[in-house]
Amino acid sequence: MKRRRFYYLLFFMFMGIMISNAQDPNRYKEQVDQLYNKEYNFNNEKQLVVFAGSSSIRMWKDVQNYFPKYNVINNGFGGSQYSDLIHYYDKLILKQKPDILFVYEGDNDIAANKKPARVAKEAKEIIKNVQADLPETEILLISTKPSILRWGLRDKYVKLNKRLYKLSKRRNIEYVDIWNTMLDETGNVYEDIFLHDNIHMNKKGYDLWAKKINQVLENK
After folding, report:
1. Upper half-sphere CA count for residue 116 (Cβ side, 13 Å)
2. For residue 92, how many other CB atoms are within 10 A of its CB?
3. DSSP 3-state assignment of 73?
4. Contacts of 54 (CB under 8 A, 6+ apart)
5. Ordered mean pLDDT values, 10 residues apiece, the chain (220 residues)
6. Which of 32, 86, 102, 112 has a CA 20 to 30 Å removed from the CA of 120?
7. Rounded distance between C-alpha atoms, residue 158 and residue 162, angstroms
8. Which residues of 52-70 are buried (b: 16+ CB within 10 A; e: fewer)?
């Protein structure tokens, strides 16, 4: 009995360490430093667009090709959360001084069992920082996306998206709804827009994103 309790104690200590490490923003330091030090040869006559966020942004390798009218920087990193973007705000947003900023986080936050209210609070912190430091920057907040892998969490994602929408209205910024863009006529997520992991998107998925984002940009 004592031995069993000892193993239980070791297990929970191990899980505590794992959770602590998973939330350590320094796990992305090398990746962020590479983004920070990357050099670009841009057309100075074009506006600068920065996409910042998690792996759904990071894996959009050809994002520049979708928006040829703009200079585009992809500052997506790891499986990041809003707290990670707050930590690397200076390197991934402030340094670039974008004309237009797209933010995509929240996907991994909910999967890590964060409450929608807490996630929205961290999103608000990012927005407030940008509006204070870069008042000329247009901020576009991208909703969280649905996915096959995390479809069981859809109610929490919907709650978060409602909070992000309300936040965007209060802070006078644009909200980009890609959640409904990725659902079919029956309300289920398209199954042919993902890679084999059922969470990251293939070209069809990014085509949907680009169509929605271009619609928003054209209305500016």
Report:
1. 17
2. 24
3. strand
4. 76, 77, 78, 79, 80, 81, 104, 105, 107, 108
5. 43 40 78 96 96 98 97 97 97 97 98 97 98 98 98 98 98 97 97 97 98 90
6. 32
7. 6
8. bbbbbbbbbeebbebbeeb
Report the side by side order of strands in the sheet with 71-76: 71-76, 48-53, 100-104, 138-142, 174-176
Distance CA 13, CA 19 (A): 10
Is residue 179 within 8 Å of 107, Cβ to Cβ? no
By C-alpha distance, which of 82, 98, 91, 101 is closest to 33?
91
Is 189 within 8 Å of 183 (Cβ atoms)?
yes
| DSSP reduced 3-state for 135 | coil
How far is the C-alpha of 142 from the C-alpha of 146, rounded, in Å? 12
Q: Per this entry, what is the length of the chain?
A: 220
